[in-house]
Amino acid sequence: MPIRELCGNSVYILLVLAISSLYFVVSGLQFWVTTYMTTVYSIPQNEVFTYYVITCLTAPALGVFLSILLFNCIGGYNSRFSFGICLLFGLFACLVSVPVPFATSYITVYILLWCIFFFGSFILAPLIGMMLNQVPKEGRATANSLATLCYNLFGYFPAPFVFGGFADRDKSDPIGSMKFAMGVITYWSFLASFFLLIATLIHLR
User: Cα dist. 15→69, 80, 134, 141, 161 in Å?
Assistant: First the structure.
């Protein structure tokens, strides 16, 4: 399938951008969460590592498991409810991301970050399935390859650098800079929800 034709598929492109934005959030958090917690809350690294391991084992696993159950109940990724459900849980991810940079308790941050990983993993697999469903079967290999390139260019690769750039913006206030950088990363979920909202409106039109 020609790449030009894929680029003309607006729903496909919007879903790729939404997924890339999710990977941006995940990549930034994975790379910087330890530094953030030790700098802002003076928590020992061992405790942060323990929290991170527990979060990575429980939040994505539970999110994926419940996502499979729910989407099996509604008839899979082709269901007319699939876009709405993903948008709803994407908005949940946005809501729990709002207090993160302002939280004064590290326990609150632990809970909020767990929720971000949970909601993100809940919608990630359905979004990939919905994205591939936007193209004919013979073009899905090309579509998946192009999407993977976008995930890396706009998601995995830039997030750690963006966080680091904002974290170093004010050497006189390292904690304030770190909180600002965390806000940039977590609020990126709003961009993912925006792309998903536009894709949903186009799909339903």
Answer: 22, 16, 10, 16, 24
Question: Please, what is the average pLDDT of the chain?
Answer: 90
Contact 21, 191 (CB under 8 A): yes
Take residue 94 and report the two structure tokens written for it.
């946005």
Residues 99, 50: Cα–Cα separation, whole Å: 23
Calpha distance 10→134 (Å, rounded): 9
Consecutive H or E run containing 63? helix 45-74
pTM value is 0.92
- In angstroms, the CA 97 to CA 112 distance is 7
The Cα–Cα gap between 188 and 50 comes to 26
pLDDT in tens, 6-49: 778 899 999 999 999 999 999 999 899 989 999 999 888 888 88
Give me 143's structure tokens: 């579509």
Domains of the chain: 3-204 (1.20.1250.20)
